[in-house]
């Protein structure tokens, strides 16, 4: 399912354009499973699943599987509808160089919301 | 296509606040009982544009919204360029009472959202005699910081973009796109460090948890309306405040978020109009 990110993000011209100054690799953890997501100038270049021996990433987003499931549902319930809502409830941990995350916050919110079943915007 | 004008009229008011000269933007529409509107942190009075354009509100109310100093079309005071803006409870209270006096408002209804909802609780406690009724939107007694506020004001993060991105999820899921993005645009337009400076009041200085239960609703009726999707001031937080204040009336608004009057005015008015009716009938 996470692999779908590449086609869905790259298929959204406006999102890619807003990310044109963003080049990074970040780690997404869904429960025990890690995914390294590489972005080059707003385009998702690769989505690789762990386990990894020595993963390098600028920052990591970690939440339990059931939290991501709620976040990715077609109409997420209150408290699960946004990355900041998850952070507020202390179920999503954002760690690492968060300048990259915060400077491109709208991009990351909208990119990860692409995995929603109905593809609703964040 | 013919141009159409809204009934809103805006003016600039010069007023001394906290011993300094200020130039403030004030707009209003309608006639009748004054309804003074307080915008959220990092935004401005445009959040109340729909109320000012709705005849059901303006035929009995003089709806007034001002942009706080540093916000919208109001200027920061001279000397601002070497200062760090930080809103305090004392300044916020002085500002609201000062503007009421300047506009000669006789016991207005006060409606405030978020930081405006918080100061509404302060005013309900400390100046109940000055208001006909108080309506707190997204009003809680306290919010713990849940992100590093320094990200709101540093040169390697665009302040407008990050402010809007932080609050974007606070808009409810049913908000019409036009109103959602209008609401976020106001955040994108905020001056450097202004949203952060407002949050000093919201997350630190304005904590009223210890005193909120002392609000006496027999001196000033208190209505609390909060959106279901607000994770900043959650419905639980508002319900907690309501439960601690005898006589307060609380409504949790389904599908709405942190900016009800701006993100989804038509849904919000379904909740607000009965409250205004109730206040008018007292």
Topology summary:
The complex is a heterodimer of chains A (122) and B (282).
Chain A: H1 4-10, H2 13-18, E1 24-30, E2 33-40, E3 43-49, E4 59-63, H3 65-71, H4 83-88, E5 93-96, H5 98-103, H6 105-113
Parallel strand pairs in A: 1-4
Antiparallel strand pairs in A: 1-2, 2-3, 4-5
Chain B: E1 9-17, E2 20-29, E3 33-38, H1 49-52, H2 55-58, E4 61-66, H3 89-102, E5 109-113, H4 115-126, E6 133-137, H5 159-167, H6 177-188, H7 194-205, E7 222-227, H8 235-244, E8 249-253, H9 260-263, H10 265-280
Parallel strand pairs in B: 3-4, 3-5, 5-6, 6-7, 7-8
Antiparallel strand pairs in B: 1-2, 2-4
Helix pairs in contact in B: 5-6
What does it look like?
Chain A has one domain (4-113): SCP2 sterol-binding domain (Nonspecific Lipid-transfer Protein, Chain A). In chain A, 34% of the residues lie in helices and 25% in strands. Chain A contains 6 helices and 5 strands. In chain A, strand 1 and strand 2 (33-40) form a beta hairpin. The two termini of chain A are 18 Å apart. The model of chain A has no long low-confidence stretch (mean pLDDT 95). Chain B has 282 residues and is α/β, with parallel strands linked by helices. Chain B has one domain (9-280): Rossmann fold, CATH 3.40.50. An 8-stranded mixed beta sheet of chain B has the order 1-2-4-3-5-6-7-8, with helices on both faces. The longest helix of chain B is centred in the C-terminal third of the chain and has 16 residues, at 265-280. The mean pLDDT of chain B is 97. Chain A binds chain B through residues 75-76, 78-79, 81-85, 87-89, 98-99, 102-103, 105-106, 109, 120, 122, and chain B through 146-148, 151, 156-158, 161-162, 164-166, 168-170, 173, 228-232, 234-235.
